Amino acid sequence: xxxxxxxxxxxxxxxxxxxxxxxxxxxxxxxxxxxxxxxxxxxxxxxxxxxxxxxxxxxxxxxxxxxxxxxxxxxxxxxxxxxxxxxxxxxxxxxxxxxxxxxxxxxxxxxxxxxxxxxxxxxxxxxxxxxxxxxxxxxxxxxxxxxxxxxxxxxxxxxxxxxxxxxxxxxxxxxxxxxxxxxxxxxxxxxxxxxxxxxxxxxxxxxxxxxxxxxxxxxxxxxxxxxxxxxxxxxxxxxxxxxxxxxxxxxxxxxx
Length: 256
Hints:
By secondary structure, this protein is of the alpha/beta class. It contains seven helices and eight strands. Strand 6, helix 6 (201-208) and strand 7 (220-222) form a beta-alpha-beta unit. Helix 4 packs across helix 7 (236-250). The protein starts with a strand and ends in a 6-residue tail after the last helix.
């Protein structure tokens, strides 16, 4: 039996992954953006061991989420599921950051750095990351006109860069990324064509499976099979530029 924390698990793929893991006999800690979302999560999965609360667009609340998670005990795996989509308007958070960057890029970094190191880390990306550039000279869109779909794709490229940076820095941890497919979640929209029943299975497989295919690090997956990511994710210099940018913007260091 494993203990797994899943960010953004009050609904959608995060909740589906949690339900699947509980059915397999694992212990799961859920996360909701606010108390209402946390209450929804508790009602949807009363078997969850705990539900933590915090808005991942806020650095202070993201730190609080990490503290709450650590307060429940040690975890075998963390699934970084929380995210916002490609329809994001050009809005800034209380910290002055683009909302999509704060939630999709910076929050997974901060949680990775502050939550006690698990055996496995799983980061959700998107197939859209293949069309993106990292743009780490302007990660907060100060120099560029806002383009929501591009910002989303860029943040999902950042997630894979982060997963691969952690895989290289922490050799004792299985750190991987995946794309769940374009599925009919609140983010994906009702017309999304991919199989909803497959969308949550890769992250749970990577989090708990003893299959040799899941016990790897620095890999990218789709439907439990390796898939080629954007080649930029293998560039160590880009990985380190992302880590440096996230450390500067969050004032949180990624342990070595």
